[in-house]
Write a structure and sequence with these properties.
By secondary structure, the protein is α/β, with parallel strands linked by helices. Helices cover 54% and strands 10% of the residues.
Length: 226
């Protein structure tokens, strides 16, 4: 009976407590050691997640099972989480997932591939839908969005991409400037929501002059960590 390395991803404290309980139940009579990463670390790139790397190495060297409570807690997108688990399984590490027993070392490769295919299909449908709208607009038809808003014009691919890159650049600059203010709170273990409240209390505004929310802090941390 193999021991279990229970990896607890960088989620909020309440979810961490739930994950720890799920992993204990999964381990059953097996001995379990926990490896926990700080909050928001699930937004970092694979190589930058030192606690995760340690958990993988521990599972490899002790021939233990690497267990996670939920795929959704590993990263902010399920298909990325499945790819991450697939990379770990390729190292020969046995994997168990508490809230989905169908995900394991044998099935993860197929699931990761299926998720990638589904993502590509969604992108293809989106591109086709945009092309259809452009064609109908060019023909003089009236086109409405799913919310009933009349679509008058779509930007050219070049203009749209340029605007996208400009927004990304501006967001990156703001994230790099505000992160030194946020980091001390992260180091103290404050939740993302608490950090947002503290910045709002101090009258600090976002790049658009708005209030901070948990999602705003999450996006900033993710940008700096990438």
């Amino acid at each position: 009976m193999n021991d279990v390395i229970g990896f607890i991803a960088g989620v909020n404290p309440q979810l961490k407590k739930k994950h720890r309980q799920q992993l204990k139940a999964l381990a059953g009579e097996r001995h379990i050691d926990f490896v926990e990463e700080p909050e928001t670390y699930n937004m970092l790139t694979y190589g930058a997640r030192t606690e995760l790397q340690y958990a993988i190495t521990a599972a490899e060297t002790s021939v233990s099972v690497l267990a996670v409570a939920s795929v959704s807690g590993l990263t902010n997108r399920k298909w990325i989480a499945l790819q991450l688990l697939d990379q770990i399984a390729e190292k020969g590490v046995s994997i168990e997932v508490a809230d989905d027993p169908s995900i394991n070392s044998h099935s993860i490769s197929v699931l990761a591939h299926s998720a990638e295919v589904a993502k590509e299909k969604l992108l293809t449908r989106s591109r086709k839908a945009l092309q259809s709208i452009k064609t109908r607009l060019a023909a003089g038809e009236e086109v409405y969005s799913s919310k009933g808003r009349k679509i008058v014009k779509l930007g050219t691919p070049q203009a749209t991409e340029a605007m996208k890159q400009a927004r990304i650049s501006q967001a990156d600059v703001f994230a790099s400037k505000i992160f030194p203010t946020i980091k001390p709170y992260l180091d103290r273990g404050l939740s993302l929501n608490r950090i947002a409240q503290e910045l709002n209390r101090q009258g600090i505004k976002t790049a658009k002059g708005r209030k901070f929310y948990q999602s705003t802090i999450s996006a900033i941390v993710r940008r700096v960590g990438q």
